[in-house]
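Bench notes, afternoon.
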Amino acid sequence: MSEMKKLNKELGLFDVFTISTGAMFSSGFFLLPGLASQYTGPSVFVAYLIAGILIMPAMFSMAEIATALPRSGGAYFFLDRSLGPLFGTIGGLGTYFALMFKTAFAIIGIGAYASFFWDVPVRTIAVMAVLFFTILNLIGAKKTSGMQNFLVVFLLLVVGTFIIDGIVSIYLTDIIEPAPTKEHFTPFFSEGFEGVITTVGFVFVSYLGLTQIASVAEEIKNPERNIPLGMLISLIVTGLVYFLGVFVMVSLINPEDFARDLAPAATATSQLFRWLPNNSGAYIMTAAAMAAFASTGNAGLLSSSRYPFAMSRDKLFPGGFSKVSKLGTPIPAILLTASLILFFILVLSEEGIAKLASTFQLFIFMLINFSVIVFRKSKIESYDPGYHSPLYPAMQIAGIIISFILIIYMGWMAIIFSTLIILVAVLWYKYYVRIRVQREGAIFHWFALLGKYQHPELENEFMTILKEKGLRHGDPFDETIIRSRITHIHKTTSFEKLVEDVSDTFATEMHIRKHELIREFMATSPIEPALIIPEVSLLYAKHDGIDHPSLNIIITEQGIRKPVSKGGVSSEDYIKVFFFLVNPAKEARQQLRMLSRLVDIIERKDFVKEMMKHDGHRSIKEYLLHNERFITVKLIKGTEQQEMIGKQLKELNLPSNVLVALVERNNETFAPTGNTVLQEKDVITIIGKPKSISQLYEKYKWEIHG
């Protein structure tokens, strides 16, 4: 597989929260509540709460796939790799246009609110905003998220004050005149159950930003933690703000006026913020509304621009859109997206866009929920999510049913619009994509259980993603390297004889059957192409009845002839370094993560030469460990570490998160225990967290063994 152009990992948990939250706050709070109330009356704030609950299956499914496959493109990439390029094209183009419509609508809102207080052309302000956000996105995702963080924090402060002041003024003081009456809440469900469901579908668009974070998953640090946690926190905060904020609006605004109000937040604010001079509250709320639209527009441009980038990288879009600048941003994709958003702002009417976009997103959510089922049923071992959706598969089935019902209530125009986008995507796939892409999704691996075709390159790609994600907390990679057996072979032997000898060693040490190991070491799998590196061979096996991984490293200067195959071409190579890894059978995905880490090490420059020049076991193991996670110290009298000589390891005053992993004594290397007594001239290898290792380095830097 050719080397893939990568984006910088710059976004942390707070960035995930603000991008997701910023993409939700705009029309949902500042424009839609009054319009939505005409479908269900005062119970509109309940509809917001229900919509927040009903999006949870899609959120859980999106979080699971995003932690397994943190790649730009979001829904497109997930659908392509699960259901194949056809559905990837449908999901990619459809979601791309839906996001751009929603972004254009939000940016128009900036001009609309600005026009309430200043005599400025709405679309002129919107065009200027697009240009400003484009520049931010060209500079980099971190710069974009920095702006996003400011906007969202300001927005939450103002809206939070609005809610607190509203509840206090309504129920704890008598400053609201006339006071809210039962008429504001009667009848509570003006159109019955059907009205509530219609309203839920109408305001569902308010939460769509929740899943937009998946489109920038490739740029998120520690995605297995930050994606699901950031999305969950964002949903809780946004849901509470919608529920309580709209409740305050219902309490303060006459029901008939509320149904026609395009700026209910500003109207409600006119009765609040009495503790501020003049009309300051209205100005502050207008500023908050503009910040909300700005954050949605900014996050929308950021996330939507990753769709042509990801689709171009997969040959579903012209190749130029996958180019990345020196700053790590996809410039052509950003410029294309910004240009289209400008076109929509200047040419199209914003009425009904949110509803149409929401309908197609509901269709995408159906497919995303189904994709989780496909990935799990496909039995692809390298599909390794750091977060698993709860209540599988009931959660996904419920999500599919919910989306289907809400689509029906969105009306025929919305359904026709979605069908049109699907038709365009199908035609694009037929006449542009199909002749360029030879790839199938994980669903063919599911079909493989029935003897159907599967696409082996998919496992290879997932293995590459696994390598980029790195080890998971708790994976015993360092411990396995430390315990590993290293053997130098100086005589000629065959590959088959080597496998037999190593299997015999494992069988003796681990009390398992030799012939089963031989069979597994000699077998091939779909991830094999990802493990083929010149002069190096990675062989692996799994077995029940063992409780930890075990590694044998074989080094031979002469090389051992071994058959290899890659890309359908078979050949032979002289292997000089062999890694034999055995894991517990229940830890199949852990084995893949450890193999991917080994590949990462093996791909270092001059790896084989470096392995050959190390003659001691300690130096080889140190070379294989993370450089920033270990130091080696020689115990010499008259130095800082003299205090260690003659003491047991358990008596040493070392940081709690470090470990003396190896001791070299008289040219022999062994793994010590807590009772091991250190002696003068011992060379000890200490591993641990980088921060603690750095502290020890500063303490012993003049006595580091070189």
